[in-house]
Amino acid sequence: MPTDQITRCADLILQSKNTVVLTGAGISTNAGIPDFRGPQGLYTSRLYDAEKIFDISYFFKDPKPFYEFAFDFIALESKINPTPTHHALAALEGMGKVKAVITQNIDGLHQKAGSHKILDMHGNFLTSHCLRCRKAYDYQELRSMVLQHVIPHCSCRGIIKPDIVFFGEDVKYYHQCLELAQSADLFFVIGTSCAVYPAASLPQFVPGKIIIINNTKVDLNMYNVALEVESDIDVFFNELMKALKSK
Fold first, then answer.
1. Nearest to 215 by CA among 234, 196, 200, 238
2. Active site (catalytic) residues
3. What top-level class would CATH report for the domain 1-31+83-122+172-247?
4. Which CATH architecture has domain 34-79+124-164?
5. CATH 3.30.1600.10 domain range(s) in the chain
6. Which of 84, 88, 86 is nearest to 24 (CA)?
7. CA dist 152 to 49, 146, 155, Å?
């Protein structure tokens, strides 16, 4: 790991008064959650048909493909823990150096790591609701039903849907995320290829410096990219936190 990149990143964090972070699936792959567009991603491997499982119109017609995916995803939950990067971002928030984390992920690992100001643009599995009567369900209630290999239904016989964003639905918190991007003097892009909109549009509104950290190249050609690191994300953040502690 080049020490000049570590030093440069640490200095930018210490100089910043308003740091905002955008994260994608790449931050969670070391936790054991497959990403979507990487070499072994869910879309690339075709393990699941994204056009069926994440399309809201298809869900209304047949929720079974989604819940087959949800069974595998939820079964992972008891086995996975936040990565060093999740913990580092929570620590940086605790130090007053990260104002908010904007995430495209639905895995809840930022919450597990202890981050508090989280904007889940694509929602998460932590809450669900009945599509008929709107009754709310917590994660444990949904988990119990999904792990029985049944399509979750409410007592009113309506289908229960996790509060994640499907294709065809509006993302959550977009205006708050936009305001955060517009006010950031330092903006991290971590573990995302910036291919999914509208989250991918946020960097273009950042007036401050941008730092990109990903294990593959990210095509984000902007004048204010101050640092681009192509590396294992956890290795980088482990070294970064050491550098910050020594300053």
1. 234
2. 122
3. alpha beta
4. 2-Layer Sandwich (3.30)
5. 34-79+124-164
6. 86
7. 20, 7, 10
pTM: 0.90
Distance CA 247, CA 237 (A): 15
DSSP letters of 98-150? --EEEE---S-HHHHHT--SEEETTEEEEEEEETTT--EEEHHHHHHHHTTTS
DSSP per residue over 149-206, as a string? TS--B-TTSPBEEEEEPPBTSPPSSHHHHHHHHHH-SEEEEES--S-STTGGGGGGG-
- Please give the backbone phi and psi of residue 27, each rounded to the nearest 5 degrees, phi first: -75, -20
pLDDT tens by residue, the chain, 247 residues:
678 999 999 999 999 999 999 999 899 988 887 655 554 445 444 466 767 888 999 999 999 999 988 888 888 777 889 999 999 999 999 999 999 999 999 989 999 999 999 999 999 988 999 999 999 999 999 999 999 999 999 999 999 999 999 988 999 999 999 999 999 999 999 999 888 889 999 999 999 999 999 998 888 888 999 999 999 999 999 999 999 998 7
Decide if 169 contacts 56 (C-beta within 8 A): yes
Residue of 62, 29, 46 lying closest to 233 (CA atoms)? 29
